[in-house]
Amino acid sequence: MALNVYLSGEIHTDWREEIISACNDLDVSFQAPVTNHAASDDCGVAILGAEADKYWHDHKGAMVNAIRTRKGIQDADVVVVRFGEKYKQWNAAFDAGFAAALGKSLIVVHGADHQHALKEVDAAALAVTDEPAKVADILRYVLTSNLP
Fold it and tell me: Please, are residues 99 and 76 in contact by the beta-carbon 8 Å criterion?
């Protein structure tokens, strides 16, 4: 069995690399959004033209990024969504809802301080953890039946 995993969520830590590295011996392919914050914010105006109004600047970027995000989530067997400590990741919550609506297997990662705010997101997930390493353990178990 092989898995296609989409890694959504915060872009300020190396959690994606931690999971990918821990799964290097498994038949897993990983996809993710653009994690270069400036490129992600400015892709719409860089490609489609400048906007004087910040709303339209952000809107163009969101639409261009949505092409990649939708494709990644639709093609995924498993969607992992990480909510970081520093910022409110509304886009991550949207991605979790989109994945749930598509019936994707969803793994959510966040700290204890987000438990109440994310209770509905957590209820849609098949697993909720506070550590990226546990995501790798879940993927290893799914593919090999081996416990950590």
Answer: yes
Structure tokens at 121: 């997101």
**52 within domain boundaries:** no
Residue 48 domain-assigned (yes or no) = no
The model's pTM = 0.96
Domain CATH code at residue 122: 3.40.50.450
pLDDT digits (tens, 9 = 90+) for 50-100: 999 999 999 999 999 999 999 999 999 999 999 998 777 889 999 999 999
Helices (H), the chain: 15-22, 37-48, 54-75, 90-101, 119-124, 132-144
According to DSSP, the β-strands at 78-82 and 127-129 are unpaired
pLDDT mean over 122-128: 98
